[in-house]
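Collaborator request log, item 7. Partner lab (contact: R.S.) asked for a structural prediction of TetR/AcrR family transcriptional regulator to inform their binding assays.
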Amino acid sequence: MWKYFVDATAEIIEEEGLENVTIRKVADKAGYNSATIYNYFSEVSHLLFFASMRCMQDYTNEVARYIERGKDPIEKYLLAWECFCQYSFKQPQIFHAVFIMDLGETPEALLENYYNFYPNDLINIPDDLKTILFQHSLTKRGRSMLEIALKEGYLTEGNVDAINEITLLIWQGMFTNLLNNRKSYDANQATAITMKYITEIVRNANLFDEQTKNKQ
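Returned to partner:
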């Protein structure tokens, strides 16, 4: 029953856009009355979250392929962000429902619940990436990847949090502009601009670390 409602909502999102989802439409498509939905979802935002996750499967599969192209942790981090930018800028409402919308106090529990119902979404995902995907917080996701670079000596502890925070703020700025129709960039243009600044931040921090090591 739970999956009927999630899949029905995902179909409406695909056909009409997330902004056109209503409880009545979901109930009609699933073949039940509207009141039944609230027996399975305490908040409408949770239903939208689960349905939006269904619409993110292309991203989940693609990010693994992006990361595989990286030769070191820094490249992998940048490629992961490039993939995230490309898909989030192409589907801002979907990514807003998953990563930005207020879901209450249980976003990680919602993610775990989702993958319990849709385990096939993780079939082609490497184990180390699964750990990251089970984290709802973008701050924690970015930190997890940067910690690999830290452990392998590509960054120092003092730079990790700064890179993580600045990178996220750069993405949020562009994402907010696109979500609210403040910029007319397409996904490719927005990704190119965002990645230019993110790459500069990461590379400059990495260069600073290398120069510091050489002086020592």
